[in-house]
C-alpha cells in the first residue's frame, strides 16, 4: 500500500471532512500483512498498522481468526470511512474449523481469548498465536487474561482498562516496531488514567520489534520478532516469577525466565562492544534489556549510544 499512500492519506481519509460529510469514502482495502513467514523481507513483512491508524478518517483492523476476518469485513463493507483490513499472511496457512455462522464484528470491540487474574496481555494479528503458545507453555504458573484487540483504529480502551484494573499488570505484544506504535499508544493511554495508575502493581511493558527492518534471511527475521520464549520471559518478569510458586515449571519456562538474551538469541553489535537484545522490551519507565533489573530512561539510552 506504500504507492497508494498519497491517495489514502490525503484524499480518501480527508474526503468526508473536506465536504462537511456530504461525500463519504466507503472504500475497503484488504491486504496481506505482517511477518512470521520467512523471505518476505522489508517489502513483504511489514507490520505498519500504526502508520495508517495515525491518520484521522482511516479505520484499521487486524483479525487473527477466519471468523473475525469475515466479521470485520462485513462491518467494513457497510462503513462510510475507508477501512484497511490487514490479514496476517502467516495465519493464511493455518487450517481452522469453519463456523456455521459468522456475525459482524463491530469496529473498536476487542475479544477475550482467555480469562485470567494475574496479568493482562494485549495483542493482535500474528502475535495472538505467539502469546497463546507462551500461555499454554506457562500452564498454571500464572493466570493470564489474553485480549485480542482486533481493531486498532478505533481500539477498545474500556476492555483493556477493565482487565488491567483487575490484574494490575499489563503486557502488550506486537510485531510492529517500537517508535510511535499502537503498543506505545496503549501504554500511554493506560498510564494517563488515574484509576489504572492506582491499580498497577508494576510498570506496564511493551514487547516489540525494535526500530529495525526485517531481512530476507529467516535468521534476520526471527531475531527481531517477539517469539514464545521472549513472551514467556516477559510474563515471568512482570509477575516476578509466577504467582503460583508451588507449581513445577516446564523446563522451557525455566529457561525462558533465566537464560540471558545474548545466549538465547542472535543480537547485533551496537558499535561500542556490547551485545544489544534483538527484541525491545520497554516499560512505562523506559527501556531495559530482558533479564536486567535496572531501567534507563530514553534520554540516557540515546546519549550513551552516542558517547
Number of domains: 2
Largest sheet entry: 7 strands, mixed
Biggest sheet: strands side by side, in what order?
Answer: 4-6-5-8-9-12-13
Which outline best applies? globular
Helix % is 25-40%
What fold name stands as the CATH topology of the largest domain? Rossmann fold
Gist?
With 307 residues, the protein is of the alpha/beta class. 37% of the residues lie in helices and 19% in strands.
Description:
The chain has 307 residues and is α/β, with parallel strands linked by helices. The protein has two domains: 92 residues, Thiamin diphosphate (ThDP)-binding fold, Pyr/PP domains (Rossmann fold, 3-Layer(aba) Sandwich); 183 residues, Rossmann fold (3-Layer(aba) Sandwich), CATH 3.40.50. A seven-stranded mixed beta sheet has the order 4-6-5-8-9-12-13, with helices on both faces. Strands 1-3-2-7 form a four-stranded mixed beta sheet. The C terminus is likely disordered.
SSE diagram, text form:
Blueprint: H1 5-18, E1 28-33, H2 41-44, H3 49-53, E2 58-61, H4 66-78, E3 82-88, E4 111-114, E5 119-123, H5 126-138, E6 144-148, E7 151-153, H6 157-167, E8 170-177, H7 182-191, H8 194-199, E9 205-209, H9 218-224, H10 228-238, H11 251-258, H12 261-264, E10 268-269, E11 275-276, E12 280-283, E13 286-288, H13 298-306
